[in-house]
Specification:
Blueprint (H helix, E strand, L loop, with lengths): L7 E5 L14 E4 L3 E7 L4 E7 L2 E7 L3 E5 L4 E9 L7 E3 L9 E5 L3 E5 L6 E3 L5 E8 L4 E8 L7 E10 L3 E6 L3 E9 L4 E3 L4
Parallel strand pairs: 2-9
Antiparallel strand pairs: 1-3, 3-6, 4-5, 4-7, 7-8, 7-9, 10-12, 11-16, 12-15, 13-14, 13-16, 16-17
Amino acid sequence: SDLHDVPKIRHLVEESNQLSDYDINGNYYCVGDQITFMLNGIPPFNIDYEFNSVPQKVEIQGNYFKRRAPGPGELTIKSLADSSARECKVDYEFFNRKDLKAVVYDLPSVEIVQGDNIEEDIHEGEQVEIIFLLTGTPPFKLTYIRKELDDSSKIVETEIVEDITTNEYRIMANLEGTYEAIEIQDRYCVARNHRI
């Protein structure tokens, strides 16, 4: 049998919220990213794969297998068959192809705790402890801003705090304004304020 008749699959890495495109466990993604594999052979293709150990089967008309990462977990390609005369099926069970596994991590999040407010309004002369509760895998990098009380479109301070190793970060705030987290990054992923 000619080797070129065997259908092939290759992992493509696209723009995402991930911080690097490779992890010790193989390719990794963040929730919401698109996982893409390029297929070589004669379509339609039949792919067996698992997401979080749940077997799935799909027929692909074109040369790309794409899945939006719906939640944290692991996607593994199990087998690939094309529509050539021989109807070749390649079983990846024993190949140990790390590139056919995609690990999906949840996006990190941040919550400001001071009373029940997400944003804290501080008036002149007060000193208030603001606690940022961080969800994800440390280390974290937190970016927060302080806006003027009277004009919330005016940012008067931006702070970036790196290498936070716990799930809590505290500041003593004594400057007037509204404090707001605009970006949180953990070991794997980054979330900006429209996603936080």
